[in-house]
Design goal:
Structural class: mainly beta
Number of strands: 21
CATH architecture of one domain: Beta Barrel
Largest sheet: 18 strands, antiparallel, barrel
CATH superfamily of one domain: Porin
Order of helices and strands: HHEEEEEEEEEEEEEEEEEEEEE
Strand content: over 45%
Shape: globular
CATH topology of one domain: Porin
Helix content: under 10%
């Protein structure tokens, strides 16, 4: 695996040198940028009830370097994006690993002192169409490189975007490997199977997707994307984002529909799920109040790629995903931007989710429930030498009726982040 990765990087650099020798470098250098993000992350899960481990608790320091070139001059422009990732252990113990901040030995449960990764992506551009080949960080409803830990999840493959058609952004790609958030090894792309939802270990050599975002008006965007994890599942996504002025504020609608079914050899077994959800929010004078509902139809849970989170209405929750078979989830969320009260940079959030009608016979029954109370407070320094230094603290109180074998166990969870991004050039 390491030899293949090294060869890929050497090949990429060799191709770039050959291309640059034939192209003007002005825009390649002028439009380049580089940033270094330092991320200090503390995660503490205090499990409730019977559990093999009483807690998952670790503290780590991460560094994320992103250096992106511009494009060479000419009809076809070429460039290179470089990503460097480094994670360092600050505190861990074999009896409390498993936070996904740090990789660890599955036998001894000892966390590694550090881990790192270098990612390269060659890119080309014609007009407003761009093609990138190499390390990718897609952010789409059907495939999302999770940023929810110390270092982001990444994929290896090809990704094309195009804005050549007015009001339409086209997305198309093929991913062939994934690097998990606490790993440096690229591996086949697997289906997440918490709570034994699907056959364990099912993976594929190919994840394809294509679709687009159409900006019907400045206030209405329609999204349609098709995806396929070869021989495991296919998924069609339809989304609507709409905003409109209402009284003293704005009303926002976010509707997401996923239709998923097994594909080809069905390595993970049957996949039969229709996920329908809607979030409706009203924002005024620093306040945002939202109410949402999501329901799982079909015989199975919602399928998504292992190592991350589903981009459904429960995204952002910390202890569970709320997409079990037959589950019905409602939520209420309140955000406040303290800039409206004269404290710019300070924001807060409260959210409550409740899921019922959960069908998990192996874990306790056919009408189980789960709930989560989430709190968040964040502050970004606005001026002075430390401008941009960001502090974020989150608390979650998660409870369910599932048995001790459940992937998601009742817990109280705390996450503390201190992030700072330095612009190198």
């Amino acid at each position: 695996m390491c030899n293949k990765s090294f060869s890929f990087r050497l090949t990429s650099l060799g191709m770039l040198v050959a291309l640059l020798s034939q192209s003007a470098l002005a825009d390649f250098v002028k439009d380049s940028s580089a940033t270094l993000t330092t991320r200090n992350f503390y995660l503490d899960r205090d499990y409730k009830g019977d559990s093999p481990y009483s807690a998952a608790r670790e503290w780590a320091q991460g560094f994320i370097l992103k250096a992106n070139s511009g494009f060479t001059e000419g009809t076809v422009g070429f460039g290179l994006d470089v990503t460097g990732l480094l994670g360092i252990k600050l505190d861990s113990s074999p009896d409390r690993t498993g936070t996904q901040l740090l990789s660890f030995n599955p036998i001894t449960r000892e966390a590694r002192d550090d881990y790192s990764e270098l990612g390269l992506a060659l890119k080309s551009k014609i007009s407003k169409t761009k093609l990138s080949v190499g390390t990718q960080f897609p952010a789409l409803p059907v495939i999302n490189a999770s940023p929810a830990r110390l270092l982001p999840q990444s994929f290896r493959g090809a990704y094309l975007t195009s804005d050549d058609i007015e009001k339409l952004t086209i997305h198309a790609g093929r991913m062939v490997r994934v690097n998990l958030r606490d790993s440096t090894d690229y591996q086949p792309i697997a289906l997440a199977s918490p709570n034994g939802r699907f056959k364990p270990g099912a993976s594929s050599e190919r994840f394809d997707f294509y679709g687009g975002d159409y900006r019907w008006t400045d206030s209405l965007t329609l999204r349609l994307i098709h995806a396929e994890l070869q021989d495991i599942y296919t998924q069609d996504f339809f989304g609507v984002l709409h905003t409109m002025p209402l009284g003293m504020g704005k009303f926002r609608s976010d509707i997401r529909v996923f239709n998923s079914r097994d594909d080809g050899q069905a390595k993970a077994g049957k996949v039969d799920n229709l996920n329908v959800g809607g979030m409706f929010s009203y924002a005024w004078s620093g306040h945002t109040l939202g109410i949402g509902y999501m329901q799982q139809f079909g015989d199975t849970a919602f399928p998504y790629i292992a190592g991350g989170e589903p981009v459904v209405l429960s995204d952002g929750t910390m202890s569970a995903d709320f997409v079990n078979p037959k589950e019905r989830t409602w939520l209420v969320k309140y955000d406040y931007d303290f800039a409206a009260a004269g404290f710019p940079g300070l924001t807060g959030m409260m959210r409550y989710l409740h899921g019922n009608n959960i069908n998990l016979p192996a874990l306790g029954g056919n009408d189980l429930t789960e709930s989560s109370k989430d709190l968040e407070l964040a502050y970004v320094i606005q001026s002075g030498p430390a401008k941009g230094l960001a502090f974020r603290i989150r608390e979650a109180f998660y409870r369910n009726q599932q048995g001790v074998a459940s992937t998601f166990r009742s817990d109280n969870e705390t996450r503390v982040n201190v992030d700072y991004t330095i612009k190198i050039w």
